[in-house]
Specification:
Length: about 475
């Protein structure tokens, strides 16, 4: 493996922001010999988000779904520089990114700048709160490893506090009320995992909570999982009913305090009513919002004046209004859902595109040199030989330039819904297969296992599943 990162003045500097699905797929594909590659991210690992909901209950240990970025980079042909830092501002005119070390330990320099010739933005999104009062202060989110650890701690804290001596019944009920806001896949998967935890382990380990532990899923729209087919929505709703998870549809949260949420409920007759719902644990999963660094760049570019949900990009993922900035994943708006599947394909596309661009540039340089040699050539034979070489390079160049615009290929949607059941809308040949149930769950498990980043991750996840089956989840509060 390469040891030293020495920027080559002959090569362009490519700065990649983020170590998520988009950026890491790009890093996997790109031939790092062609550029001076610099990666900036506050997270020095890749996180396999599809299994994050399982970390909230300890079914899977969080380190099993993390892959150190250093391990990914050390396998690249040419060395890549990694800075564990947050990009705080992108100055498009100056072509620099300002970065800041936000970790606990700081050296003499904690803020600096990184110049770029080419920039890829893969910083993902942050949690949407829609400015609803109290959400940030009182909710747990579910996006990062720290969030899952926080939820795991709080579940057990609520339970142990509910078991505190002389606790009133009303307070016990509140503490054991686990409320999830947002009926998208994150909310549904978390609710399913939490109910599993209760059914498989908590009920046995702490039987005194069994009559009061309750999971409620709150959703503003008339049903959960709007991206799935009607049949699978019905299947999810009936499974939740069996599991005793309450779905509160047409219920829009308006305010959050440390002990209750206030929601506007739409009644069957269309009338609206404000309701107070006490909770012990509140998990907020209402989707994505634009990160500050992205919003700031949007403000610098007149072409982004109409963008709201992220950076508008063209069919080659070039950020509109720029010629040397690309965006992938949740921070880019390319008319696809913000999913790992999309981010991964976009990143891989950019990897191929950059490899092709580098090859084209190298061929063009060679052609220039050949033309110069041709002009200076003395004999007929030499001229003909150079002419043949030029034709060959031109042919290679034509073939090389044929990379088409980005096209997303949807493999399907898959979500775990608890009780060893999953739902799947899979695109198969030209048709669609909608399926739910235990077989789908086994498919879900094997699909996610095979999608894990490395063999190491696969072995760790498999071991965690076996461990939980044999010994139950660990209920100690860290
Ligand atoms: P991310 O993967 O979020 O990565 C963003 C990266 O940017 C991170 O490394 C972050 O640390 C870094 N970063 C943040 N701010 C900065 C900054 N200022 N400067 C530099 N770097 C920064 N999708 C699916 O298709 N299937 C699923 O099953 C699925 N399950 C999910 C489960 C959960 C719980 C969640 C939260 C999401 C799930 N998703 C799933 C969605 C999927 O995770 C996202 O769409 C995907 O992560 C987007 O990839 P990304 O590269 O844009 O961003
Ligand atoms: P989402 O945007 O898919 O769903 C959020 C839900 O919250 C919406 O249904 C919305 O109506 C609801 N909501 C918003 N404000 C509300 C309020 N005030 N009160 C009540 N409900 C409210 O968000 P998500 O589930 O976090 O998913 C984000 C992205 O990640 C999506 O693109 C999703 O497809 C993807 N993802 C996929 C999977 C999977 O494929 N298994 C798992 C997790 C996330």
């Amino acid at each position: 493996p390469p040891e030293q990162f020495t920027p080559d003045p002959e090569k362009k500097t490519l700065v990649i922001l983020g170590t998520g699905w988009g950026s890491v797929s790009l890093l996997k594909k790109i031939d790092t010999e062609n550029y001076n590659v610099v990666v900036v991210s506050p997270r020095n690992y890749f996180l396999f988000t599809p299994l994050l909901p399982s970390c909230t209950t300890g079914l899977i240990e969080h380190r099993s779904i993390m892959e150190p970025i250093r391990n990914i980079l050390r396998h690249k042909k040419a060395s890549v520089k990694f800075y564990e830092a947050e990009a705080t501002k992108i100055d498009y005119e100056k072509r620099v990114v300002y970065i800041s070390d936000d970790s606990e330990i700081k050296g003499d320099i904690a803020h600096t700048e990184v110049p770029f010739d080419m920039l890829v933005i893969g910083v993902g999104a942050e949690n949407a709160t829609f400015g609803i009062p109290g959400v940030r202060e009182n909710s747990c989110f579910l996006k990062e490893v720290g969030d899952a650890q926080n939820i795991r701690r709080r579940i057990m804290d609520c339970i142990e506090t509910a078991c505190f001596k002389d606790q009133t019944e009303e307070e016990v009920k509140r503490l054991l009320h686990m409320v999830v806001v947002g009926g998208g896949p994150t909310g549904v998967e978390f609710a399913g995992e939490l109910q599993d935890f209760f059914n498989d382990d908590l009920k046995k380990w702490i039987p005194e909570i069994k009559d009061n532990f309750h999971v409620t899923l709150v959703e503003a729209l008339p049903n959960v999982l709007p991206m799935f087919s009607k049949q699978l929505i019905d299947y999810t709703e009936s499974t939740f009913k069996e599991e005793a998870i309450t779905i509160r549809a047409k219920t829009m949260v308006k305010k959050v305090t440390d002990k209750y949420i206030q929601a506007e409920v739409t009644k069957p007759d269309g009338s609206k009513e404000l309701e107070t719902i006490p909770y012990g644990l509140l998990v907020w999963a209402t989707g994505n919002a634009v990160r500050n660094v992205v919003r700031d760049l949007m403000n610098q570019l007149p072409a982004q004046a109409n963008s709201r949900r992220g950076l508008a990009v063209n069919e080659y993922l070039v950020v509109n209004g720029t010629e040397n900035v690309w965006a992938v994943g949740d921070c880019a708006i390319a008319n696809y859902a913000p999913t790992a599947q999309v981010a991964g394909q976009e990143g891989a596309f950019l990897g191929r595109l950059f490899n092709t661009m580098a090859k084209a540039e190298a061929l063009e340089k060679e052609l220039e040199k050949l033309s110069e040699r041709q002009a200076l050539a003395k004999g007929e034979e030499e001229r003909n030989q150079i002419f043949d070489e030029i034709r060959e390079r031109q042919k290679q160049l034509r073939r090389n330039k044929q990379i088409g615009p980005f096209q997303y290929s949807h493999q399907g949607s898959l979500a775990y819904i608890g009780k060893e059941r999953a739902v799947a809308d899979i695109s198969w040949l030209s048709g669609n297969i909608a399926s739910g149930g235990t077989m789908t769950y086994l498919f879900w498990r094997s699909a996610y296992l095979s999608m894990c980043f490395s063999t190491r991750n696969r072995v760790l996840v498999l071991t965690d599943w076996v461990k939980a089956k044999l010994f139950g989840r660990d209920v100690s509060r860290e």
